[in-house]
Specification:
The protein has about 500 residues and is α/β, with parallel strands linked by helices. The two termini are about 45 Å apart. It contains 17 helices and 14 strands. The N terminus is likely disordered. The radius of gyration is 23 Å and the shape is globular. The strands form three sheets. Strands 1, 2, 3, 4, 5, 6, 7, 8, 13 and 14 form a ten-stranded mixed beta sheet that branches. A two-stranded antiparallel sheet has the order 9-10. It is about 35% helix and about 15% strand. The structure holds 3,4-dihydroxybenzoic acid. 3,4-dihydroxybenzoic acid (DHB) binds next to helix 12.
């Protein structure tokens, strides 16, 4: 190899020949390696018949740890309802299917969005379907995107439960985000070969996948992942993306226990049990300190976002507008019915209004006990996410570590502070990371008690305070995983990338 390179440059044959021997050669996208598939996508404008080129299970690093996960699929629409489309310069939807911080593979997917066919109203589930989808069956963002003429890249990524024959966990933090970045680098490296505009990558994901999508956007081109990416043999290219989409992101994990008690601390479990009030109140007061330290300001001139003002902020900025949108969308008789059942909500001048305490009662049972993310028995997915080596699960907050060990001077394991940063979009927002995405689509259901509503509130406010273009709203009465305005997301992609 060295001799060939030397000979090529000595002979002045140009660097192309020499380059063709680099390891990243394995990462050159083969534009001819597709199969032709068809699918029918149920859109707001009716069914669309889409013919697309499907590129399957492309390993996106030269030195994969587990190629079952470190591979991606590409779908390129070529004909929509009988009309040829050219997606050569189309935006690219980078749709991860991570759920629960679990491993996510697209290797066995049989088409875009996990399945070659879209039974009307029956999408999701298979292959890369992941945790998205919420309570109602719905067409995935990936399928809607090909029907909108966009290129769709669906990356797999390692996840927290992967363990090798020696008992070593090899998918714990930060591997999922490192993998997603490696996949972005693959796409950007293949600019001009891979269809689509590699400067217009829009990421999407739900829940854990939403947090990773937000993190991918916030941490763009950060040098902090460089060593990990190099070790995998990631393509020599940047990993900044143009826009970030996040549905119910389970983010800001090391502060999520506090935030959860601030939000849902007074709500009972579905069993009817009340959570430990001492712990709940300690965490709640820790939230006040954390929130103050963020120094965020609410949008529309709201002023400082603190533990004292946040209830008012959520009600006026997110919750009442969500209820208003919902109630306006209902036929008059249904609206009257809803209002009769929910007398705590007033409807006047086509606007919903209510008190925070009534909203909390309306939501009802909290999904998680306290502490919600770093429980003393290490039973949460997040304990496993921060496992390492042969250790399946660890504490990642001082509060739970000290409580669980009874040692008030216990310290987090030395590798954890850095890993927590590398997993947290709020860290990169706090750093004002210049390589971050500048366009954002952020959504959560108002009945989603998987995490605190302040997680979305802070993510959006943090980005807004940096001057980014943020489209954030909540879906009224919707639970975990909801995506109720996917068609609007498609329109938004077209607008911001245009
Ligand atoms: C997911 C949900 C959770 O409640 C959580 O703690 C982590 C991940 C999920 O659905 O991806």
């Amino acid at each position: 190899l060295a001799a060939a390179t030397a000979a090529a440059s000595t002979a002045g044959v140009g660097v192309a020949a020499a380059r063709s021997r680099k390891p990243s050669d394995a990462l050159v996208f083969d534009k001819d390696a597709y199969t032709v598939l068809t699918t029918t996508v149920a859109t707001d404008d009716g069914d669309k018949a889409v013919t697309y080129h499907f590129y399957k299970a492309i390993t996106y690093v030269t030195n994969p740890v587990d190629a079952k996960y470190q591979c991606l699929n590409v779908s390129v629409p070529v004909e929509i309802d009988g009309t040829a489309v050219d997606a050569t310069r189309a935006p690219i939807l980078f749709a991860n299917s991570v759920g629960g911080y679990m491993p996510s593979s697209v290797a066995d997917a049989t088409g875009v969005g996990g399945s070659p066919m879209t039974p009307p109203g029956g999408g999701g589930g298979g292959g890369g379907g992941g945790s998205g989808g919420g309570q109602a069956a719905m067409v995935s963002n990936a399928k809607l995107a090909v029907a909108a003429g966009y290129v769709v890249v669906e990356p797999g990524a390692r996840g927290r439960t992967l363990v090798d024959a020696d008992g070593t966990y090899y998918g714990t933090a930060p591997t999922a985000i490192v993998d997603l970045k490696a996949a972005v680098r693959y796409v950007r490296f293949n600019e001009g070969r891979i269809p689509g505009n590699t400067d217009r990558i829009v990421s999407s994901g739900t829940s854990a996948g939403g947090a990773l999508s937000a993190l991918l956007g916030a941490s763009g081109d950060s040098p902090l992942y460089e060593a990990d990416l190099r070790e995998l043999g990631a393509a020599p290219a940047g990993d900044a993306i143009f826009a970030g989409g996040a549905w119910c992101p389970i983010a800001d994990l090391e502060h999520a226990d506090m935030a959860y008690e601030w939000n849902w601390g007074g709500n009972k479990l579905s069993s009817g049990d009340t959570v430990d009030q001492t712990i709940s109140k300690e965490l709640r007061s820790a939230f006040a300190e954390y929130q103050a330290a963020l120094k965020l300001r609410g949008k529309h001139g709201f002023g400082p976002l603190t533990a004292r003002t946040y209830d008012d902020y959520l009600v006026t900025t997110y919750l009442e507008p969500a209820a208003t949108t919902y109630l306006k969308s209902l036929p008059a008789a249904d609206r009257s019915g809803y209002l009769a059942k929910n007398p705590w909500l007033t409807w006047s001048g086509d606007r919903a209004a209510f008190a925070w305490s009534d909203f909390l009662t309306h939501v009802g049972a909290r999904k998680k006990n306290t502490p919600a993310f770093d429980p003393f028995d290490l039973s949460a997915p997040e304990n496993n996410l921060f496992g390492t080596g042969a250790t399946k699960a660890r504490h990642f907050t001082l509060y739970s570590l000290r409580h669980a060990t009874g040692n008030d001077s216990a310290r987090l394991d030395g590798d954890l502070p850095r890993k927590l940063d590398l997993m947290n979009p709020m860290f990169f927002i706090g750093q004002r990371n210049p390589g971050r995405a500048k366009h954002w689509w952020i959504r959560v259901g108002t009945k989603d008690t998987d995490t605190s509503l302040t997680v979305v509130g802070n993510l959006a406010a943090g980005l807004e305070n940096l001057g980014d273009d943020v489209n954030a709203l909540m879906y009224w009465d919707a639970g975990h995983g909801a995506n109720e305005d996917a068609a609007d997301f498609m329109t938004w992609i077209g607008r911001v990338t245009g």
